[in-house]
Amino acid sequence: MKKRALLTGVTGQDGPYLTRLLLSKGYKVFGTFRRVSTPNFWRLQALGVLDKITLIPADMCDMSALLEAIKISEPDEIYNLAAQSYVGASFDQPLYTADVDGMGSVRILEIIRHLNKDIKFYQASTSELYGDNATGSQNEKTPFMPSSPYAVSKLYSYHITKVYREAYGLFATNGILFNHESPLRGLEFVTRKITNAVAKIKLGLQKNLSLGNIYSKRDWGYAPEYVEAMWRIVQHKEPDDFVIATNETHSVKEFVETAFKLAGMNWEEYVKIDAMLKRPKDVNYLRGDYTKVSEVLGWRPKIKFKELVSIMVKADLERWEKHLKGETFPWDAQNFPHNIEILKRKKK
Fold first, then answer.
1. What is the pTM of this model?
2. Domain 190-218+249-284+304-343 in this protein, CATH class
3. Catalytic residue (one of 11, 19, 126, 249)
4. 4-181+220-244 belongs to which homologous superfamily?
5. Distance between CA 257 and CA 11 in Å, rounded?
6. CB of 198 within 8 A of CB of 260?
7. What is the pLDDT of residues 333-342, one digit of tens each?
8. Which of 122, 150, 222, 270 is labelled catalytic?
9. How many CB atoms are located within 10 Å of the residue 218 CB?
10. Which residue in the list 11, 19, 128, 195 is annotated as catalytic?
């Protein structure tokens, strides 16, 4: 009998990659999505998995909708990927972020506790929990010092997951994932903002790129590899918490330099610093330590920094080149107003 999995937030970056992985392993996959005026299924379409899953409308703030989704899907495993995942926006929408990223997880855990305690639960945690508290590396024992409403909300979910595991015996796990990127990353995130701008500048569609703090450092990995770590965490014989990272750290400036260099350009000719783009409170340094997940689950990253940047730059160049040739394909550029005039252009 096929295993059944429910993925909340299936339309985000990680959902489609995890969907593809689970389908390859013979799962029946269900995914929740928020009803919005403009459907956001382009990632699932890009990976060719949209017609292979069952979509269920549900909001993380709506307990009854989540209950209905779990009753419909009857999952063996639930991967809670849904979140207001943009750190900058959490300062503008702290209450909404707290409700979705914090209370959303406990709603699911309560349903599991009352409906079916055999359901395995994965909580998508984040390196933002550590805040700006270290210059070394962060592992499962490093103290948390969240520095944003997003991180504080995720910290609640991290701890409540452990509470339900210890108090009720649920198979409830946390994956503390450091930054992980891919061509499916949203344009509102700095990595994709950079690679998309590099592609447009290279093709004469944009003149410059405005950024905020380019000196903050992050541990950047490759999203398709990280979703395999999620799956391995849930397959482990005992529920536990794991850091998923690359053991490297690189600055936003390094990301910019590498991206422009890969496209044959000098970043200093195009990048402008805009103080308005800086967060009220930022995390300046993160570097994970994946020793535990390597030793216990046998997972380790293969794609490192430069190759990751190359994959993203290449993907955005290909997208804009396809657009200029008049090809149609699933992507997110049309969702952003500043691209409207550019999208009207076609190669003569």
1. 0.95
2. alpha beta
3. 126
4. NAD(P)-binding Rossmann-like Domain (3.40.50.720)
5. 30
6. yes
7. 877 766 766 7
8. 150
9. 25
10. 128
